[in-house]
Amino acid sequence: MNAREDAAVASLHTPRPAAQGSSDDEDRGRGARDPEDLGTDPAIPPPPARSHRHLLSIDDLGPDGIEELLHLTDSFVEVCARPIPKVPALRGKTVVSLFFEDSTRTRLSFETAAKRLSADVMTFSVSSSSVKKGESLRDTVETIEAMGIHAVVVRHSGSGVPWQIAGWLHGPSVINGGDGWHEHPTQALLDCYTVRRERAARGGLLPGRGQRSLEGLRIAVVGDIRHSRVARSDVLAFTALGAHVTLIGPPTLMPPSLAGWPVEVSHDIDSVLPKLDVIYLLRLQRERMQEALLPSLREYTATYGLTRARARRLPEGALIMHPGPVNRGVEIAAEVADLPSSVITHQVTNGVAVRMAVLYLLLGSGVDLAAA
Amino acid sequence: MVIRGGTVVDATGSRPADVLIQDGVISTVGSKVGSVPAGTVVLDAGGCIVAPGLVDLHTHLREPGREEAETVESGARAAALGGYTAVVAMPNTEPAIDSAAVVRQVLELGRGACCDVRVAGAITLGREGRLLAPIAEMAALGVRIFTDDGAGVQDARLMRRALEYGSALGVVLAQHCEDASLAAGSHMHEGEWSSRLGIPGQPAEAEELMVSRDLALARLTGGRLHLLHLSTAGSLAMVKGAKASGLPVTAEVVPHHFTLTDAAVASFDPVFKVNPPLRTADDVAAVKAALAEGVIDAIATDHAPHAQEDKEVPFYQAAPGMIGLETALALALTELELPIERILALASWQPAAIAGLTAEHGGPVAAGRPANLCVIDPTAKWVVDPAALASRSRNTPYAGRALVGRVRHTVLRGEPVVIDCEAQR
Fold it and tell me: Residue A74's closest CA among A194, A239, A223, A224?
């Protein structure tokens, strides 16, 4: 750390009341300043009273919790825009990314977020680990906990694994980085944030006082809803914030039952397009043809893909979104993905800030985790 | 030995009576058995029901091959504590019970056990669903029930042949009804909960297709069909219709299908993973109604022990199954609004008849009959504690559940194998 960076860091950090046993040797060389008393960064609000230990489902937050998190994210977007996008808010905390399923994008986003908060980051890579040697999930998780960590970000192909891990751990926070077809709460948060921010940036109507951030917006989620954790979390989050959600796709790619889902369903994308504020396209896995869910990619693109012709029929100002990685030419035409109305790269950028806000919310209050 | 002060309940009715047992046989049943020789064991049955021992048509004892989950000895002890004097061990062991040699092995293992261990043979070699197992050779050793349980026989022609072949031997073909293609890749019931939880499910129709097919095959062949662990309203309706038309089919249900729904999976705890899967509240109501209407012949347990390492894994990797021998009767007494005589019919003499065991089990409590009995305290309150169970495995979904009604004593061939809820060996 050079002197300039050090100074920047010193001026940007958050209160850490009652943090435990922290002997932070990075603070040496700053004179006699108590590492627990570094002043506050006016850009970052103090974290709200800790009500969450884990972030497993969007439902854990509730509408108010989501709004609060989006509000908190604004501060971290500002931090990320600085020349030195780093604050010491989580110094001394250790965050482990525990990815049992490959996802370079989500893992890098979380790790970047943790590093910008000055947390120590450990990466657990399944391919080179004891898991390959037959270690059980529970043993793996308990071993990592024994190293004295504060949070694990879990990605697993099995729905519910973060819940199981949360049940086995005594201290650390568990953040769901995507479980099976079930949930991907930080993706939903960054999607909500992106819609809110990009609508505002493009002069879209902003919700009035007392209204939810996505009040009245018409959002379509298109594609493979059945197998999509993104869709499940997005539906929960979008509707919690007041949006009207329409799911579009062939019946074979819809969940077997939509009982209790506050959504409409359409199999006709063309009739829905002209009324949308946001069209959210899901990635289509190529193996769906083997399971007799679709006859061909060509037929899918013709029926449900966002082609150039369809993109032209979107209302002025409508946003085009995608969780990535994009199958250009399948769910979205290459040129459409590059249109100004496509905010796909904004989603990625905002993802880092949203994950900073999540980590800050769960770890940054300084409340003793073991007592939580 | 004398069982004093209880109310005897069997297929002939109920009456207060003491039961005197000598040399493994009931010698006297009456209000006054008179003085007994000094040193006679006296089992107190005050306030209790004295009934024929229970018979489980559907027990996984895991031996040979999975002894870390259960052994014949530990499973039989769990059975005795649950009031069972006979269990039918399912053939999905490793190796499968698909030959006279493995039948002899399991029967031998059961010889000194706390309950009478009978064996079901596989229908097909290795339970692979391709070639018939030596059904007659196994039947010659006393095997009366044949099943590939754990999987259904998928090939309709093969199932037809098995029913035809078995009809000459007086055996029962028992089917685990599940269409493998429709159920492929599933880990729970398909519906509202599977959709919400993002877990692949199997629809009720995966079971119902095979129930429908096998009822047709039973009609075609005249073979004797028993339907294992039915779980859906549609299956039960088909059985009701088949019975009304005179088809000699029998069917069982298991306690978790009348006490739990697929909503339990929302915890993602693999203890709730079972096959057939937990169904909807409507299905649970249908199972209860079918029991009340007499559509169902037996309450079985599908006791399916699994080692901890097979359950403390992601839901989709977990082995399906729940233990049940020590909780089945209490769940029936607690959850079913049926008189105890009906519950005992479903848990004792009716399954004994299906398994061909009436000479020894489930018969009337009368002089001259083998002394295979259980004594039930119908008002005893207890809470399920997995650590206190006798099974080697702990995969009960009822941890912490308060139940009413408990087996107090169990007598096997005149020997008190359970006294005051404690196994004696």
Answer: A194
SS3 label, residue B68? coil
Scanning chain A, the segments in alpha helix (DSSP H) are: 3-11, 62-80, 104-116, 137-146, 161-168, 185-201, 229-240, 269-272, 297-304, 308-312, 334-337, 344-363
**HSE-CB for B214 with a 13 A CA cutoff:** 35
- Average pLDDT on A298-320 reads 96
Name the residue with tokens 């007994």.
Answer: B36
Note whether A294 and A214 are same-domain residues. yes
- CA–CA distance, B228 with B83 (Å, rounded to integer): 21
Note whether A158 contacts B: Cβ–Cβ < 8 A: yes
Which member of B198, B267, B309 has the closest CB to residue A159? B198
Specify whether A179 is located in the same domain as A214. no
Closest approach of B245 to chain A, Cα-based (Å): 34
* ipTM surpasses 0.90: yes
Q: A261 or A13: whose pLDDT is higher? A: A261
Q: Express each pLDDT in A31-45 by its tens digit.
A: 343 434 334 576 777
What gap in Å lies between CA A26 and CA A38, rounded to an integer? Answer: 13
CA atoms within 13 A on the CB side of B52: 33
Q: How far is residue A284's CA from residue A329's CA, in Å, rounded to a whole number?
A: 11
Find the CATH number of the domain harbouring A189: 3.40.50.1370
Q: What is the pLDDT of residue A50?
A: 56
Residues in chain A: 372
For residue range A251-294, list pLDDT tens digits in order.
999 999 999 999 999 999 999 999 999 999 999 988 787 888 99
Task: Work out the end-to-end distance of chain B between its first and last CA atoms, rounded to an integer number of angstroms.
Answer: 18
Q: Model's pTM, two decimal places? A: 0.92
**pLDDT class of A202 with cuts at 50, 70, 90:** confident
Grade residue B186 by pLDDT with cuts at 50, 70 and 90. Answer: very high
pLDDT score of A33: 39
Q: Residue B376: which of B82, B78, B48, B115 has the closest Cα? A: B48
Closest Cβ opposite residue A256 in set B190, B309, B317: B190
Q: Which H or E element spans position A85?
A: none
Between A21 and A248, name the one with better pLDDT. A248
The H or E element spanning position B253 is: strand B249-253
Distance between CA atoms of residues B20 and B1, nearest Å: 6
SS3 B204: helix
The two tokens of residue B195 are 């959709």
pLDDT of residue A208: 77
Size of interface A-B (CB pairs under 8 A): 70
Question: What CATH class does B53-354 carry?
Answer: alpha beta
Residues 6+ apart with CB under 8 A from B327: B82, B255, B384, B396, B398, B403
Give the structural domain span for A215: 185-345
Least confident of A21-30, A66-75, A319-328, B288-297: A21-30
Residue in B274, B310, B300, B276 with CA at minimum distance from that of residue B394: B310
Is it the case that residue B304 has pLDDT exceeding 50? yes
**B267 chain-A contacts, CB cut-off 8 A:** 163
Q: Say whether B313 and A136 touch across the interface (CB within 8 A).
A: yes
Same domain for A116 and A190, yes or no, is: no
Strands B373-383 and B402-412: antiparallel
- Per residue in B321-372, pLDDT (tens digit) is 999 999 999 999 999 999 999 999 999 999 999 999 999 999 999 999 999 9
Query: What is the Cα–Cα distance from B77 to B89, expressed in whole angstroms?
Result: 14
Contact A274, A246 (CB under 8 A): no
Give me the residue label for tokens 């037996």: B298
- Residue A235 tokens, joined: 């539906």
B268 SS3 class: coil
Q: Which chain B residues have a beta carbon less than 8 Å from that of A261?
A: 195-196
- A204 and A299 assigned to the same domain: yes
| Domain B2-49+367-423 in CATH 3.10.129.10 | no
Total domains in chain A come to 2
